[in-house]
Amino acid sequence: MGNARRWALTLVVVSIGWAALALHGWRGDVRMDQAIGLWTLHHGRLPSRNHWTVAALNHSFSDTEWLYAVMVALVGRWGIYILSGLVWTALTIWVVQWLERWPWPWSGLAAVGWALLMVPLIPPRPELWSYLGWWGTLMSLVAYRAHRRTSGLWMMAGMTLVWAQMHRSAWLVVAVFTWELLLGDPTRRKGLWGPALLSLVALMLPPAGGLSGLTFLAHVGHFGSDGVLNTVAEWLPPNVRTAWGLTFLGIVCGIWGSLAGWLWHRQDRVGLGWLVLGTMAAMEATRLAPYALLGWIVLATPRMQVVRAARLPHWWTGVAVGAGLWIATAPWLMVMKAGIFQPSWPPAALMALRRAGATTNILAYQGDTLVGTGMRPWVDGQVQMVDTAPWWPAWIDTEQGRWSPAAFVARWDPSAQAIVWPTPRPGLPALTLPKPWRPIWHGPIRWVGTQPTLTTIWVRSQGR
After folding, report:
1. Which residue among 26, 177, 249, 282 has its CA within the 20 to 30 Å range from the CA of 357?
2. pLDDT tens string 370-388
3. Which residue from 92, 73, 82, 383 is spatially nearest to 223, judged by alpha carbons?
4. What's the CA gap between 464 and 456, in Å, rounded?
5. Are 156 and 140 in contact (CB under 8 A)?
6. Listed residue (20, 112, 52, 98) closest to 381, CA to CA
7. Pairing state between β 418-422 and 453-460
């Protein structure tokens, strides 16, 4: 791959990622990170109790992503957008450089296809940083296999000291090193013991490791519950009824068709393990697909190196340039419509709540943005702490439109000050609430995706 082609491809892939981040916006879990980070900076310690939602108030709380939360609080909205974009840029340069081992045009198609599949999976959250760490771990292992260089292994093991305080995906370092120790070439095991032990120690260090890590693992069991799986799409398997899910399934079939027999013939037990476990993880939860995609790129490289480069006519270069420009431009056309890294809630909506004196006990379809503004909703994205509560089935019914929000608060939160709910919901009749609820604001809020949904804010009438 020539320099001009490499940099053109890199610019296309970088542009896709920055546009995806811009579309994700300043909403969702990152607002909860902001609130936790601000609390930590203000009190000079990590919270041990939940202070941000009514349903889980004073519930035991362990934030294993505290370092990222502090970072968000320090740099703010635009700072975290820029930092996230720079992380994506570094990952892109590294991946495109690796794909130079593939023949053209398969290297270009792989890079652009990977970027497009990553679009819904790169929010401004710590997992984006973990993708970079995961790729670095894979590269350190590849270098050790090829040249017996241990510097990369020690560097990634040392980076685990920081990574483990940002995101629990740092356990992947321990998992990969251990897998190589168990099934890899016995002559290569000596240089792995030290980095593997260091990464294990780093993973257990407080405050995110140790007992906090065990508390986190206790919550992991809730991720498979019906409540969480009905409300958190990223923990669901890829939906093959969507274009993304169908494409991903096609890639899984293609990867298995080209690699399974080849790895078996080479008796590459480590590679087969990566293939099987990566596929199982990705098909279990969409959130794990990025790690599988990066692993497959590495696994497929020796196979692709024996594939001949395509002999394409000269006019194909023009087609490739035109297609690349369109692929890089199309996401930004959506950004121009939706706005760059926009908050999900208009300031007028938040002001309406404050003017009505409704700053706590707010039943909101999603509460993370309210938490980020200092208000206290009924619940937010930390559903794993409350999905065994007796009111949880009613909450699911309310979110899915089978029960009225007014009925929910009457039964489970009679002191609720406000209700913020999309109306009308897709496929459901317009939402109306009985007295004493009265509407004080109506407008668009971006709850999910890039398209805003008309939403109404109700508060209790005075004297009721």
Report:
1. 26
2. 998 889 998 887 665 676 7
3. 383
4. 20
5. yes
6. 52
7. antiparallel
Give the pair of three-digit tokens for residue 421: 């709910």
Q: Which residue type, as a one-letter code, is found at position 323?
A: A
CB atoms within 10 A of CB 34: 26
Here the tokens at position 147 are 């040249």
| Residues shown for the chain | 464
H or E segment and range at residue 457: strand 453-460
Alpha helices by DSSP H, 365-449? 368-372, 392-399, 405-412
Which residue matches tokens 């053109």?
A: 8
Look at the pTM and tell me if it is higher than 0.70.
yes
Q: Which is nearest to 398 in space by CA: 371, 378, 373? A: 378
What are the residue boundaries of the structural domains of the chain, listed by start?
3-332, 347-460
pLDDT in tens, 104-153: 888 888 999 999 999 999 989 999 999 999 999 999 999 998 888 899 99
Q: Which amino acid is at 455?
A: T
DSSP state of 81: H
Q: Copy the structure tokens of residue 165.
A: 């305080």
Query: Distance (Å, rounded) from C-alpha 99 to C-alpha 73?
Result: 36
Residue appearing with tokens 């709910």: 421
Q: How far apart are CA 173 and CA 215, in angstroms?
A: 20
